[in-house]
Amino acid sequence: MISNTNPREASNKANIVRKGQGSQDGQIGFRFPRAVTVTTLVVLLSSLAWAERTSLKPGWNLFSVQQDVEAGQQVSKDAEQQLPMLENSRVDNYLNSLGRRLAERAPSEKYPYRFKAVNDRAINAFALPGGPIYINRGVIEAADNEAQLAGVMAHEIAHVALRHGTNQASKAYAAQVPLSILGGLVGSNSVGAMLAQLGAGFAVNSILLKYSRTAESQADIMATQILHDSGYDPQAMAQFFEKIQAQDRGGRPVEFFSNHPNPENRIVRVNEEVSNLGGARRAYNSDSGEFRDVKRNVQSLAASDAHRAEDIVDGRGERPSNRFAWFENSLLGLNYPDNWQATQ
């Protein structure tokens, strides 16, 4: 086909179209690489933050994850019979709301966490395997803000996530039970039998509640990560520990340290982990009106004169001794408080 169009005009039109297309494509072209670059940069920075954080994994354990949950459920029944529970729905609901937000950021297994307040002014908290966590009212009253309370709760969540209770029980059990029957007992899901043989109920000397300094340091590090990822200032946890440490050294013993041995350089290590995570954010959550309301509510409640967790005694009204005797029969051997009686 022969066209009557002037070749120069056709060329100009083609140039106009190419320029228009080039301009439009150029805009899209510039936008697309920018979006890709920004997205890639965010991913890279996030990856670097995760790469720098201290990697923590649960230690060797004879118990399965499900057995952790079962053990915690069994021991929590005993605990709630012996402890003066606050039984205040407003406080417990608040603790569960805050605790579950924190627990969502905990790595590894997603345990059925639940949080309850204890009517005890002693500054203490403890976690049982598989998710039950108890917070003394003394922690709420001593905390200056929600971030400090969140720090204590994140520390206990970390004990659950790292399976410290059943890790301790596993090491004790393996040392006492002959290898020939160990696998059979563990494989039979006899959680109750294993706990009974270890004397691992709810008591001051329970193996489930006694952590090493290494376990404490690990819980601090993971709690720092949980707080950071949840938007809370991890240094608030360090500030709270610093505060109660000063009280403990000042002649007023803090119950928290009776079953949470204070690791060396605790506050320094928390601050190091904050640096590993990229440093402090400009906008951390530190407090809330709900925390202040709950704290006022707790302060208005009558204190219990019931025994504290540290004062739980055996059926004879006598506290377990800190000295241990050895019991052994054809099936097992174990340590027990020397003011208790062992029978065949």
What does this 3D model show about the protein?
- 56% of the residues lie in helices and 7% in strands.
- Helix 3 packs across helix 5 and helix 5 crosses helix 10 (235-249).
- It has helices spanning 7-52, 65-82, 89-103, 137-142, 146-161, 164-176, 179-187, 191-198, 213-230, 235-249, 256-259, 266-276, 289-300; strands spanning 114-118, 125-127, 132-136, 324-328, 333-337.
- It starts with 6 loop residues before the first helix and ends in a 7-residue tail after the last strand.
- Mean pLDDT is 77; it is low at 10-32, 38-49 and 306-317.
- The strands form two sheets. The protein has a three-stranded mixed sheet with strand order 1-3-2, sandwiched between helices.
- The chain is mainly alpha-helical and 344 residues long.
- The protein has 13 helices and five strands.
- It is globular.
- It has one domain (58-301).
Give the SSE string: HHHEEEHHHHHHHHHHEE
Strand order of the largest sheet: 1-3-2
Beta strand count = 5
Average of per-residue pLDDT values: 77
Please give the share of residues in helix.
Answer: 55-70%
Q: What is the beta-strand fraction? A: 5-15%
Which blocks of ≥5 consecutive residues have pLDDT under 50?
Answer: 10-32, 38-49, 306-317
**Gyration radius, rounded:** 28 Å
The number of helical elements comes to 13
End-to-end C-alpha gap: 112 Å
- The coarse silhouette is globular
Structural class: mainly alpha
Main sheet attributes: strand count, strand direction, barrel closure: 3 strands, mixed
Count the domains. 1
